[in-house]
Amino acid sequence: NNPKDLDLWVKARLPVDHLSTIPTEWTLEVSREKKFYGKIMDKAIVEETITLLDRYDQIDMAMGLSTLLSTGVLGHSPFGSEAPIGVARFLAGESVGKSVYSQDIFSPKVLFNLQKCKQNILPEKEDLCMDSQMEVIDVPELHRTFFSNSMQLDNNTPAGNRVGYLTLGIDVSRILQQLSLATHEATVLVSGGRVVSVYGPDGKPVKSAEWSRLPIENMMSETSGIVTIGNQELFFLHMIPFPGTDFHFFIFNYKDKEFALVDTLDTNSTILINHISMEMRFVSFIALVVVLVILNNLAKRMTKPISVLANATELVAQGKLEHIKLPALETDRKDEICQLYHTFSKMVEDLRDKEKVRGVLNKVVSPEIAEEILKGSVHLGGEEKEVTVLFADIRQFTHLTEKMPPAEVIQLLNTCMTKISHAIDAFGGVIDKYVGDEVMALFGAPVAKEDSALKAIQSALTMVQTLSEWNKERLGQGKPVIEMGFGVHTGLVVAGNMGAENRLNYTVLGANVNLSSRLCAFAKPMQVLITDATLKSPQ
Hints:
Helices cover 45% and strands 23% of the residues. It is an alpha+beta fold.
């Protein structure tokens, strides 16, 4: 905290850190005042100086820690249980110093590749580097990457020939950082077909994942080009500073900035050309307008039927056939468009007729059966199917209606059966027939369904609930309640179209149908009886 003590400390540190060539007063100024950045030196240079001072301290402490480990007193591995976790350095009389951790300066994996080194060093010579070839060493644990080369060292002694290898590495990040600061642009190092390191224009590392998705294969074959990163288009320059090596440096700049001069020249030349050719362009514009008007009228006359057909096609897709109105064409037209127009008009009329038939069929048979009839695939015959059959019958119907006029009886039946039909349709059932006050429904025919038994039971319970709510209304109106009994059974039946070729009826026959009918007759009012076969049916 004492400025005088700080000055003494800096002066003492300069010779130790081998930076005595830097003016002492300048270094003292750096340590005293952060505002000095804007006075004399660029901020990056000042930060670099401070980084160098810290770097020399780290080197001294790393050497001390390495020497300690080489003695074997605390083990030979910096990651052993007895090894120190780091080393600290204090000046005499001070309680605060600097430190480094072992994990920050040692790598837990072997970085030296002995086999590769032996392959690249010529065997007949001594003390040689790796044939002037550099290698990239990536240390993800330290988040650092190095350019490296190894040297073979031979020592012939009376005890024998000793061979060792010395590997020196240069931190790639420092090279990229200097390149970024010098060019004020983003720089990328690529080696081994992948992005090794990225630095921004401010000389700071960039960790964005977008840089890892660069089209490396395409960029490697180009000396320059344009790529897209995120939403930005960037211009790049490709450099190989060390021929014969797999080190590729790329410098990136915004496309707009890179081509600013070209864009300016292009803009100015365009203005000049426009000024010179104004009259010519005006005449051309008038002629073009006249031609466009003529072509527009001709195109409208030719394409009007197509536009009408396009709108009509959209209405057909929406099922709004009643809204389609096709105007008559000129009688003198005999082209392909006219033929298409008349064919489409006939198709719409056929679809309208088919929809009318569908509407009538849906009222007398189920939608599934109606669809089969419209497809023309209905024919005489039957097949065995496992179907769940539901019977529902109004209890004491004769007693309820014996004094009612026929019109009221029909109205009562229609109202009741409408409510029952909705419950059947809601669970995918098909109404086979109405027999007086009784209704027969199929689940699993004509289209087989795995959960037909469950759907039949759910449908019956829904009918009970619907009738209960309806009876509350009837009681409020002073009318008698309507109660029904329900029988549900699952089993094999003969299902198919029966009758004559010109009049068919889809139904099911068999003992299992009769069993379901008898269950319905045996059920009490508002009671649903099911068989064991229905209970044990899958799903």
